[in-house]
């Protein structure tokens, strides 16, 4: 999501009369460590609270957020992630000075019990429904993926067979033994 989108979304969410479209939630879901996650900044915008407040609530209830619910980006992950989204303009950093908390689907669900506001519960229900739709979409395409994998294996097998054929042809065209001497009568002119 672009920084200008975050500023606009933040202003609109703070008015509290705007319902955030599903597309904004979908845009906030990212892949890190092979998991679908949402970062603290995006969630805070959706809930209409400052990121600092969200982080404080999570820290006060740290027992509710084990590693499969929430993790903090490593410095390397943060550096790579940050370089993709932000220039060094300090007015646009929007909380990017520190590695964000990354919440998995389970962590997002747990946030509603930590924040305890009606808005947090409503937003969490929408986020969880989107996570479920993503999972269902992936499962519905599972059969297509398995067919592609079978085709890939078949192509690899054919590649190996073609390679073997070319090796045999090369051996036939370039024999390794020296040419044999002709036997029989030799005429000298």
Concise overview:
The chain is an alpha+beta fold and 189 residues long. The chain is built from 8 helices and 4 strands; from the N terminus they run ααββααβαβααα. It folds into 2 domains: 3-140, no CATH class; 143-174.
Architecture overview:
- By secondary structure, the chain is an alpha+beta fold.
- It has two domains: 138 residues, no CATH class; 32 residues.
- Strands 1-2-4-3 form a four-stranded antiparallel beta sheet.
- Helix 1 packs parallel to helix 3, helix 3 crosses helix 4 and helix 6 packs antiparallel against helix 7.
- The N terminus is likely disordered.
The major beta sheet can be summarized as: 4 strands, antiparallel
Strand content: 5-15%
- Tell me the number of helical segments per DSSP (H or I, 4 or more residues long): 8
Strand order in the sheet with the most strands: 1-2-4-3
Itemize the secondary structure elements and their pairings.
Elements: H1 3-15, H2 22-28, E1 30-32, E2 35-39, H3 40-47, H4 51-60, E3 70-72, H5 75-85, E4 101-103, H6 105-115, H7 118-140, H8 142-173
Antiparallel strand pairs: 1-2, 2-4, 3-4
Structural key phrases:
4 strands, 4-stranded antiparallel sheet, 8 helices, alpha+beta, 189 residues, 2 domains
């Amino acid at each position: 999501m672009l920084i200008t989108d975050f500023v606009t979304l933040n202003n609109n969410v703070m008015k509290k009369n705007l319902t955030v479209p599903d597309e904004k939630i979908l845009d906030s879901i990212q892949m890190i460590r092979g998991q679908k996650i949402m970062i603290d900044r995006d969630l805070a915008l959706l809930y209409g609270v400052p990121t600092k407040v969200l982080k404080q609530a999570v820290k006060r209830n740290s027992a509710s957020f084990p590693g499969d619910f929430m993790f903090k980006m490593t410095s390397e992950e943060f550096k790579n992630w940050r370089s993709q989204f932000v220039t060094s303009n300090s007015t646009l950093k929007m909380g990017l000075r520190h590695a964000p908390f990354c919440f998995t689907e389970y962590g997002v669900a747990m946030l509603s019990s930590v924040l305890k506001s009606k808005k947090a519960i409503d937003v969490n229900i929408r986020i969880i429904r989107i996570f479920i739709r993503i999972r269902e979409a992936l499962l519905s395409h599972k059969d297509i993926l398995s067919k592609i994998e079978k085709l890939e294996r078949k192509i690899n097998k054919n590649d190996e067979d073609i390679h073997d054929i070319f090796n045999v042809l090369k051996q036939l065209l370039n024999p390794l033994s020296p040419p044999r001497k002709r036997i029989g009568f030799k005429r000298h002119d």
